[in-house]
Amino acid sequence: MGETKGFPYAEEVKLPPEMAGWEEMYPPHRLFSKDRDDWEKRHFWYQDKIHDPEALYPLDDIFNEAWQIALSQYTTRVFCIPPAQGVQQRMLGCYMYISAVEPPPPEVIGEKAEVFGKRLPYVLQNYDMLWGKWIEKFKALGKDMQSLKVPEELVKYVPDEDIFPVTKGYTPAYEVIAAFNTLVNQIFLGWQYHFEYLNLAYLAYLMFVDTAKKLFPGIKESTVMGMVAGVDAAMFRPDQELCRLSRLAVAQRPVGDILKKDISADEKIKELKGTEAGRVWLEELEKIKDPWFFASCASGWFHYEGSWVTKMDVPFSYMEGYVKRLEKGEKIERSLEDITKERERVVAEYKKLIKVEDDRKSFEDAYSAVRTIYQFTENHIFWVENWLHTIWFDKVRKFGDLLVKYNVLKKTDDIFLFNRFEIPMILEDLVTAWALGVGAPTRSKYWMEKAEKREKILEAARNWVPLPGLGIPPEEVSEPFTVMLWGITSEKVGEWLKGADLSGNEIKGFASSAGVAEGPARVIKLAKDIVNLKPGEVLVCPSTNPSWAPVFTKIKAAVTDIGGLTCHASIVSREYGLPSVTGTGVATSMIKTGDIIKVDGTAGVVMIVKRAGA
User: What is the rounded distance in angstroms from the CA atom of residue 314 to the CA atom of residue 249?
Assistant: First the structure.
């Protein structure tokens, strides 16, 4: 295939021999296949680096299976966004590639438009009521998952209470199988809820951007997006609680002194329990731990990331920094009031420029729509991808513990090396051996060897660099969600084809959050390294994670490789009043930690002012 024409097709990609057998880790419908060859080659595929920048453990892929259905159905079958269809997924070499499905025929677009015209206005007019219902049912789902009983052992003989006065009728064998099936159903239901209004929220963004650009030719995208900033959403609540706890600690001198110590969270908690003030402070912490410490240490998508509640050193390190800054007289909270005032000022100025009444109504309607539903983007992300995922990982590990206890797997987390269709087979193998009686074997050697082989394949996949795209790109990337969320544009694809030039000092991306800032860069490629970020630095990373909100009060700006105007980095930067350039593609390759860089979030340009050590 010509170098400038496109990328290799999936079957043309050469994988390292160490990855042989990778396909068996994922369900067959998630792989590129000859029987769908014509369909697949009509589409351009790009690696989903926002959600899955890393090689995927089979069970962690369940979230993608769920979102492919959920995202797509709300566009095609529920709210029926007229020209849009779903986003399809395929696995290649343990990495996920996605593609927006080609538009439907004109007659289908017409049918959808009629349905869409009735359903969108209803949601916008009744959003507050609908959100109340949404959060009520979602919390109920999470509580159901928390209360799901996973048997801790397979008893030698069922107890008498299961026989008298009436036989129970089933045993732990059934409970194990039923519990896992229930858990899978619950996570799929959670992701059905995840997309209930999300596509409409992104659509409202797009409609507002389009309206503003038509009314104010030449307006900068960062200005448009700034008109949407300022929301009190759930994703910011964990950071707000850290700020509150930090202020309480400073008010009680022994607590603040303990939090500043260079010791582990467990050691700090032990010391706090030894003082009256410390015990009172820990009571406050305990009150808010569920849900607000059920925040992932990174994206929430991978089992190995952990959450604040399971890796307490992370929130305690944030609070250590907050206490030190408070003692210097610094402000640590997000300035929501300032952001809101600035938004209202900008909106008022632009409304004054509108002379035609119909144009004014168009602007006000689009603005009202996006401000109404905007909050869902940062509300749902906490409840689904942080709170519910934390509960999910905890429950999955209960099954892993059970399999380890009976020597079916070697390690608890080996369960994540099997996909959701395979785990019921492993559990059935376990309970069958139990039911057969003393000495009946499981296929433990088979499962353990498979787990070991897969770990090696994933290690090889992590050392392999996947292509950014597959197939022939369209002349113009115009699918709105692809551009706005993933930041994939025709220009970006062109850079992939040519090979990015890493020799210059200027980097271009999306003007995601207005303002200009200059400072030393801190390149963060792994989520665990976020603790190395120092006050006054500029965060440079592949993409930001929702739980990183606490660092946004001490950095000067943010730059990412991935993401468009509605990605998380864009939203959070605007909420914290920081300049941000997203979707650069090459920032983490061109910039080194210590480089002095200038971030122009108004123009979408990053300049390397001075190289580290120069």
Answer: 17
